[in-house]
């Protein structure tokens, strides 16, 4: 034990030295010269020597005392952590709120805002007819979009709590209060269809999106397994709700918006208000959590606020309340799948006929279903998969991007199929998965599976869980694997600008992607520091706006990380190319001297990088996760005892940042599969609309023992420094918690006389309620002895 | 015109007729004095984004939800926000540094509130274990990190941390003993920060009209409350203490007369005669302290169980301001409210003392209280009876997650046993089943005279209980089927827990426990490569904006974007 402590201590020491003086002593100081290429290892096996860090985190780092050393970004402190709502109140500012429909389906006969307007301090009320231009907040002419979505319902209402008007008042409380006093009358009011399951057999509500046929079929069919699975929505629960502040500017409007897509806001404001695009400047410094809700939904509120400013010529602040965010906006896509699989005696799938229905809400617009087309078979044999996807329509808010949209559902559905085969045929679920791996992925997957089996001590723990379940009637455990293969698609437009100041050689970057916690600015700084061979303290990433970063794509999908890395690299290279002749004429100059000389030589010290939508860096991301849970059969409550999660992130450009992405995404997934339960009334009204009744995981809900491993010696592509996408894949593996819960529940059912081979549907999260009811406990079994 | 006074980060503020009834401390901090470091999201005490440290005249700094507290109820308080804790001029607080360094800040929006919650915790008790740290942060939500790095950062301040960050580090920073923040002044005068205490002796009722025409009165005595109601009428009034009820049932419109009773000393504290008499204005945090203390007294050992259950009520910042009376009044006004406090008091047969302004004090059972006309009345206290050692207690709260949630179903069981474990009296109480179902009377009657821990008694009791439970639909709460079944499950669980272990088959024993209660301190490992030859690519650095996200700007440096 002492040895272990000593070992950890020495490692800690070393670690701290790295942190303190990375540029001074630990590394041989390279001459200040261009690093033209990122110097990736040529062989991924050989060149990954030092630095593997493996220790309990609380032991690995120390707190250095000198703050200037501790904070490599000390200069960054001169700026401030600014979020949209922190914009100081402006003189004459007004507030707005959205009035919402109180039926799900109906034609608007009239809207009466007189009660709202009668409140002292309420200034104005606007409805769809007041929008001078196009009443839409989504651009059908953008990548991944196909339609307009109304800012305010005109004519008909499509879901309960759809925005029908904008109330303007002197205070936020007043605006929120007055919005509830707006009354509308409707005709042709109809019962809504809320559940995606009800759309499956309704031709009017489903449209086939894609059919991918199997390329081979096996003939060794021992058993035919049929299943129907459904998953439901998830509210994003950003800590900063959707927020916009708009003020009149010299040329039109200055818009401060908490958005993941500035161009979308700018474009749709310009269309709605009939302004030229160049009259609308959108600024976003950072957002307080995104997870997809701020990709397109932000534009709706931004247009509302901009309309108010145009009408009143006063600044307008629009902070959407939590209940407006939950009730009026779409969420993660519910989805159901229907499958039939012919399976051999060892669980090898001979064929699968598989249909999937993605619940778009009231309209198809954002192309989620497209994202499933490459993902449906997960890591399993694609050749035998007959895949058909459908877009479904329900009478709910149009659903929207939510961390791993399209892919999360498909991964989960494929894992359910593996589990059902294992249960119904009484096979080991790990064996079933292994037997069905696609040859394209099997080498990578097997390496990682073996790693997790060893790291997790799986065989021993498997036996221990079996023993526990035999020896305990009212507590049950589950130990399950989930596999992941995840392939990103597409690229994005980013405009990267890099400027060097001649006085001291300090550097600013703007890159057009939105910092929402995912660490994109950190990666940009690391890449620039590497390329320019200067300390990271010299570099700052500045606020984004549509002046310096026009036409930028949305910061969605994990792919944006790659594009920023590439774009910053390009800008740096352009600068380095210009500096080369100057440097060659000097004798190993310092960066500062080089810049001074270049300035005096009339060298352009602002460089530019651009990334294209059609550039892709093809790679697959792999993951293997093992979960152990315990369920209290007498209450349905549960705890996650341990998680072993191994993900292939390539060569991580910023390991601490990427670890954060993996852990955060996984917990968001844990919430999705356990305690986050959306409940609708038959009217279509969302009842779980606030923190009192919508429950996200908290600190004591995380795994009791949580081990995250990045795959060793992984490397993707020089262009992105060997890295892979990170933000979305880990949430897809959180289904493992649901699978482990199912094992625990199945063990309880066995004690109630229900055989393990009987599959049972579980639609939605494994809440305490579902866990209890599915356990099928008979009170006659309540005994002492 | 009267005003109330309080301090924020050492600076004095006064409010009165310039604010409306709906202005919270949060609004005041952000909108009036431009301290934007305190964030918010839900505005109902659920997400924790708005937590600040607050110190009332007599206490150590406490975490509170600034979104709940009416700014006019802050009289005499000293508030510390993230701006007052540490910044680049005076040096960062170790909590800020550590949270940033351990990558406990991603989008950064929740970071200041975590720091303030943890700061308050350490100020109240720096002698804290890692497990206690983990158990004390249920008030906070983070959607980005998955909590692990935040817990790692804060656990390093615990006494059993492998490398504890010692409190000396904090003292080096010249922490102001008054407000718990980094000291801003080099010439701090005792008298300067003692204004509150000085005023204390000569306090007067403070009364003023709010901007929205409501009357705000800070009462000092119960008779003040009655006088105000006499003068103003009782058609539209509200007694304000922690103002946390709005987290349960949102308040759309405040009453015409708002009486702040948080300064009424008659309603604070406890006395112990035959009963434990706890004054109604006692906060739940103070109640916990009382329970812990009095549990050492003869016939009050059972309070330990009550103590454990009250720790499951909401979370620390809310318990710091929510009062017993406030909790009971929510239950009184809306019987659906699954009040843990009501449940516990009913289980032990506690009584409540109320007084209507026109009448003498009355003592009511908990159930009588629910039906009592409380218009114009004040709750004086609750009386917890002594219970002999042959009383056995089991309570349970089923929550949708490990902490900080209202009960899906809660239950309390009290069995008085005589030799041979024969029941002489039983009280079986349930919450959240229906607005009216409180006690399982038939089951209680059946159990009298029965040997409690036999299969025969159990089976028969379950049947009776199943028949008498009244469970009503209450969406979005869980289904009737679940709540009914889990109520039966809890009855059984309680008996498993109370039964002599020798009476139990081994397979059933683990049914007695609560998984969340048994949860140990969490642990985590992260394994990754780093390639020195390409640093800073692959270098594990903290996020570049992490520090400023844990800091916040000072008002004088207000940043106005172009």
From TrEMBL, chain A:
<dbReference type="InterPro" id="IPR008274">
    <property type="entry name" value="AldOxase/xan_DH_MoCoBD1"/>
</dbReference>
<dbReference type="GO" id="GO:0016491">
    <property type="term" value="F:oxidoreductase activity"/>
</dbReference>
<dbReference type="Pfam" id="PF20256">
    <property type="entry name" value="MoCoBD_2"/>
</dbReference>
<dbReference type="Pfam" id="PF02738">
    <property type="entry name" value="MoCoBD_1"/>
</dbReference>
<feature type="domain" description="Aldehyde oxidase/xanthine dehydrogenase a/b hammerhead">
    <location>
        <begin position="83"/>
        <end position="190"/>
    </location>
</feature>
<protein>
    <recommendedName>
        <fullName>Aldehyde oxidase/xanthine dehydrogenase a/b hammerhead domain-containing protein</fullName>
    </recommendedName>
</protein>
<keyword id="KW-0560">Oxidoreductase</keyword>
<keyword id="KW-0500">Molybdenum</keyword>
<keyword id="KW-0411">Iron-sulfur</keyword>
<dbReference type="InterPro" id="IPR037165">
    <property type="entry name" value="AldOxase/xan_DH_Mopterin-bd_sf"/>
</dbReference>
<dbReference type="InterPro" id="IPR000674">
    <property type="entry name" value="Ald_Oxase/Xan_DH_a/b"/>
</dbReference>
<dbReference type="InterPro" id="IPR046867">
    <property type="entry name" value="AldOxase/xan_DH_MoCoBD2"/>
</dbReference>
<dbReference type="Pfam" id="PF01315">
    <property type="entry name" value="Ald_Xan_dh_C"/>
</dbReference>
<keyword id="KW-0408">Iron</keyword>
<feature type="compositionally biased region" description="Basic residues">
    <location>
        <begin position="8"/>
        <end position="22"/>
    </location>
</feature>
<dbReference type="InterPro" id="IPR036856">
    <property type="entry name" value="Ald_Oxase/Xan_DH_a/b_sf"/>
</dbReference>
<keyword id="KW-0001">2Fe-2S</keyword>
<dbReference type="GO" id="GO:0051537">
    <property type="term" value="F:2 iron, 2 sulfur cluster binding"/>
</dbReference>
<keyword id="KW-0479">Metal-binding</keyword>
<dbReference type="GO" id="GO:0005506">
    <property type="term" value="F:iron ion binding"/>
</dbReference>
<dbReference type="InterPro" id="IPR016208">
    <property type="entry name" value="Ald_Oxase/xanthine_DH-like"/>
</dbReference>
<feature type="region of interest" description="Disordered">
    <location>
        <begin position="1"/>
        <end position="67"/>
    </location>
</feature>
From TrEMBL, chain B:
<dbReference type="InterPro" id="IPR005107">
    <property type="entry name" value="CO_DH_flav_C"/>
</dbReference>
<dbReference type="InterPro" id="IPR036884">
    <property type="entry name" value="2Fe-2S-bd_dom_sf"/>
</dbReference>
<dbReference type="InterPro" id="IPR001041">
    <property type="entry name" value="2Fe-2S_ferredoxin-type"/>
</dbReference>
<keyword id="KW-0274">FAD</keyword>
<dbReference type="InterPro" id="IPR016208">
    <property type="entry name" value="Ald_Oxase/xanthine_DH-like"/>
</dbReference>
<dbReference type="InterPro" id="IPR002888">
    <property type="entry name" value="2Fe-2S-bd"/>
</dbReference>
<keyword id="KW-0576">Peroxisome</keyword>
<dbReference type="GO" id="GO:0051537">
    <property type="term" value="F:2 iron, 2 sulfur cluster binding"/>
</dbReference>
<dbReference type="InterPro" id="IPR036683">
    <property type="entry name" value="CO_DH_flav_C_dom_sf"/>
</dbReference>
<comment type="subunit">
    <text>Homodimer.</text>
</comment>
<protein>
    <submittedName>
        <fullName>Uncharacterized protein</fullName>
    </submittedName>
</protein>
<feature type="domain" description="2Fe-2S ferredoxin-type">
    <location>
        <begin position="2"/>
        <end position="85"/>
    </location>
</feature>
<dbReference type="InterPro" id="IPR006058">
    <property type="entry name" value="2Fe2S_fd_BS"/>
</dbReference>
<keyword id="KW-0411">Iron-sulfur</keyword>
<dbReference type="InterPro" id="IPR016169">
    <property type="entry name" value="FAD-bd_PCMH_sub2"/>
</dbReference>
<keyword id="KW-0560">Oxidoreductase</keyword>
<feature type="domain" description="FAD-binding PCMH-type">
    <location>
        <begin position="208"/>
        <end position="389"/>
    </location>
</feature>
<dbReference type="Pfam" id="PF00941">
    <property type="entry name" value="FAD_binding_5"/>
</dbReference>
<dbReference type="Pfam" id="PF00111">
    <property type="entry name" value="Fer2"/>
</dbReference>
<keyword id="KW-0479">Metal-binding</keyword>
<dbReference type="InterPro" id="IPR036010">
    <property type="entry name" value="2Fe-2S_ferredoxin-like_sf"/>
</dbReference>
<keyword id="KW-0408">Iron</keyword>
């Amino acid at each position: 034990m002492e040895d272990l402590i000593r070992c950890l201590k020495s490692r800690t020491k070393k670690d701290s030295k790295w942190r303190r003086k990375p540029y001074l002593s630990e590394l041989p100081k390279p001459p200040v010269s261009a690093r033209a290429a990122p110097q990736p290892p040529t062989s991924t096996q050989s060149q990954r020597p030092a630095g593997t860090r493996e220790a309990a985190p609380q032991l690995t780092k120390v707190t250095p005392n000198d703050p200037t050393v501790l904070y490599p970004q000390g200069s960054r402190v001169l700026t401030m952590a600014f979020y949209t709502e922190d914009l100081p109140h402006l003189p004459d500012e007004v507030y707005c709120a959205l009035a919402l429909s109180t039926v799900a389906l109906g034609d608007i006969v009239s809207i009466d805002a007189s009660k709202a307007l009668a409140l002292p301090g309420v200034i104005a009320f606007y409805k769809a007819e007041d929008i001078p231009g196009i009443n839409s907040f989504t651009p059908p002419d953008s990548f991944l979009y196909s339609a307009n979505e109304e800012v305010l319902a005109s004519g008909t209402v499509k879901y309960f709590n759809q925005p029908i008007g904008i109330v303007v008042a002197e205070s936020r409380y007043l605006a929120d209060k007055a919005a509830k006093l707006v009354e509308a009358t409707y005709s042709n009011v109809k019962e809504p269809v809320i559940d995606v399951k009800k759309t499956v057999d309704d031709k009017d509500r489903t449209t086939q999106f894609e059919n991918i046929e199997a390329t081979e079929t096996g003939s060794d069919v021992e058993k035919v397994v049929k299943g129907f699975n459904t998953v439901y929505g998830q509210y994003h629960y950003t800590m900063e709700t959707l927020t916009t502040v708009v003020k009149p500017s010299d040329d039109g409007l200055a818009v401060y918006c908490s958005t993941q897509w500035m161009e979308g806001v700018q474009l749709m404001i310009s269309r709605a208000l009939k302004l030229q695009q160049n009259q609308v400047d959108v600024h976003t410094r950072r957002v307080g959590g995104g997870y997809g809700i701020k990709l397109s939904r932000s534009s709706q509120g931004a247009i509302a606020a901009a309309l108010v400013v145009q009408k009143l010529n006063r600044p307008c602040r629009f902070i959407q309340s939590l209940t407006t965010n939950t009730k009026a906006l779409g969420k993660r896509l519910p989805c159901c799948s229907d499958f039939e699989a012919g399976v051999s005696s060892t669980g090898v799938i001979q064929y699968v006929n598989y249909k999937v229905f993605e619940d778009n809400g009231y309209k198809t617009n954002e192309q989620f279903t497209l994202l499933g087309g490459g993902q449906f078979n997960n890591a399993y044999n694609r050749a035998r998969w007959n895949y058909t996807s459908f877009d479904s329509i329900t009478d709910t808010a149009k659903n929207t991007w939510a961390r791993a949209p399209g892919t999360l559902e498909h991964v989960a559905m494929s894992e359910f199929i593996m589990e059902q085969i294992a249960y119904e045929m009484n096979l080991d679920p790990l064996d079933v998965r292994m037997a069905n791996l696609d040859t394209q992925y099997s080498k990578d997957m097997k390496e990682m599976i073996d790693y997790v089996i060893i790291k997790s001590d799986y065989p021993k723990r498997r036996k221990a869980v079996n023993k526990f379940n035999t020896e305990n009637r009212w507590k049950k455990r589950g130990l399950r694997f989930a596999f992941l293969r995840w392939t990103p698609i597409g690229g994005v437009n980013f405009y990267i600008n890099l400027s060097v100041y001649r006085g001291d050689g300090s550097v600013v970057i703007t890159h057009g992607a939105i910092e929402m916690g995912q660490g994109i600015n950190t990666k940009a700084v690391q890449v620039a520091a590497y390329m320019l061979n200067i300390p990271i303290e010299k570099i700052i990433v500045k606020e984004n706006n549509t002046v310096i970063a026009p036409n930028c794509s949305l910061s969605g999908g994990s792919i944006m990380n790659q594009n920023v890395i590439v774009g910053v690299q390009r800008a740096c290279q352009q600068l380095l190319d210009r500096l080369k002749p100057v440097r060659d004429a000097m004798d190993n100059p310092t960066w500062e001297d080089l810049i001074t000389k270049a300035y005096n030589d009339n060298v352009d010290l602002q460089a530019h990088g651009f990334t294209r939508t059609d550039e892709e860096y093809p790679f697959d991301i792999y993951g293997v996760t093992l979960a152990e849970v315990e369920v209290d059969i007498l209450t349905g409550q549960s705890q996650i005892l341990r998680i072993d999660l191994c993900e292939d992130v390539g060569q991580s450009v910023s390991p601490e940042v990427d670890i954060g992405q993996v852990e955060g995404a996984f917990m968001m997934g844990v919430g999705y599969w356990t305690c986050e339960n959306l409940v609708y009334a038959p009217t279509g009204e969302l009842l779980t609309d606030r923190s009192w009744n919508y429950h996200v995981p908290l600190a004591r809900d995380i795994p009791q023992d949580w081990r995250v491993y990045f795959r060793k010696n992984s490397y993707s592509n020089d262009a992105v420094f060997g890295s892979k996408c990170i933000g979305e894949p880990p949430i897809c593996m959180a289904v493992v918690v649901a699978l482990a819960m199912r094992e625990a529940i199945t063990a309880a059912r066995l004690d109630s006389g229900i055989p393990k081979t009987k599959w049972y549907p579980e639609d939605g999260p494994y809440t305490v309620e579902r866990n209890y009811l599915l356990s099928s406990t008979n009170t006659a079994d309540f005994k002492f002895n | 015109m009267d005003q109330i006074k309080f301090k924020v980060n050492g600076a004095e503020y006064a409010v009165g007729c310039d604010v409306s009834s709906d202005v919270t401390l949060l609004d005041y901090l952000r909108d009036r004095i431009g301290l934007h470091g305190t964030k918010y999201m839900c505005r109902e005490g659920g997400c924790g984004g708005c937590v600040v440290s607050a110190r009332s005249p007599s206490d150590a700094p406490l975490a509170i939800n600034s979104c709940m507290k009416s700014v006019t109820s802050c009289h005499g308080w000293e508030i510390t926000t993230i701006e007052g804790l540490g910044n680049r001029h005076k040096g960062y607080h170790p909590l800020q540094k550590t949270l940033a360094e351990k990558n406990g800040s991603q989008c950064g929006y929740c970071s200041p509130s975590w720091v303030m919650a943890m700061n308050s915790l350490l100020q109240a008790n720096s002698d804290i274990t890692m497990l206690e740290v983990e158990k004390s942060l249920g008030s906070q939500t983070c959607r980005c990190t998955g909590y692990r790095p935040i817990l790692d950062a804060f656990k390093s301040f615990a006494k059993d941390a492998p490398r504890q960050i010692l409190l000396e580090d904090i003292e080096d920073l010249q922490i102001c003993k008054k407000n718990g923040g980094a000291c801003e002044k080099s010439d701090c005068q005792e008298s300067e920060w003692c204004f509150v205490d000085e005023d204390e002796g000569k306090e007067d009722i403070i009364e003023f009209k709010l901007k929205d025409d409501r009357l705000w009165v800070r009462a000092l005595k119960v008779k003040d409350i009655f006088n105000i109601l006499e003068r103003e009428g009782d058609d539209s009034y509200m007694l304000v203490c922690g103002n946390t009820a709005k987290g349960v049932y949102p308040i759309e419109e405040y009453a015409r007369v708002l009486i702040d009773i948080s300064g009424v000393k008659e309603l604070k504290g406890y006395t112990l005669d035959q009963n434990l008499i706890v004054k109604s204005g006692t906060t739940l945090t103070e109640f916990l302290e009382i329970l812990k203390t009095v549990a050492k007294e003869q016939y009050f050992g059972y309070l330990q169980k009550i103590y454990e259950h009250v720790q499951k009520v909401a979370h620390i910042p809310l318990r710091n301001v929510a009062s017993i009376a406030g909790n009971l009044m929510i239950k009184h006004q809306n019987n659906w409210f699954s009040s843990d406090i009501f449940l516990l008091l009913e289980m032990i047969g506690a009584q409540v003392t109320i007084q209507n302004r026109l009448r003498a004090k009355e003592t009511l059972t908990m159930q009588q209280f629910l039906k009592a006309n409380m218009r114009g009345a004040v709750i004086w206290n609750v009386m917890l009876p002594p219970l002999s050692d042959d009383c056995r207690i089991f309570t349970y709260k089923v929550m949708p997650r490990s902490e900080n949630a209202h009960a899906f179903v809660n239950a309390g069981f009290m069995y008085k046993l005589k030799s041979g474990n024969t029941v002489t009296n039983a009280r079986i109480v349930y919450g959240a089943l229906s607005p009216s179902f409180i006690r399982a009377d038939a089951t209680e009657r059946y159990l009298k005279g029965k040997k409690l821990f036999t299969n025969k008694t159990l089976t028969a009791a379950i049947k009776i209980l199943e028949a008498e439970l009244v469970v009503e639909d209450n969406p979005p709460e869980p289904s009737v089927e679940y709540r009914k079944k889990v109520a039966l499950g809890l009855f059984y669980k309680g008996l498993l827990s109370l039964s002599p272990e020798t009476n139990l088959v081994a397979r059933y024993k683990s049914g007695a426990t609560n998984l969340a209660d048994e949860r140990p301190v969490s642990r985590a490992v992260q394994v990754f490569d780093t390639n020195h030859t390409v640093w800073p690519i692959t270098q594990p650095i903290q996020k570049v904006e992490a520090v400023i996200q844990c800091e916040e700007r000072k008002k004088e440096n207000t940043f106005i974007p172009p």
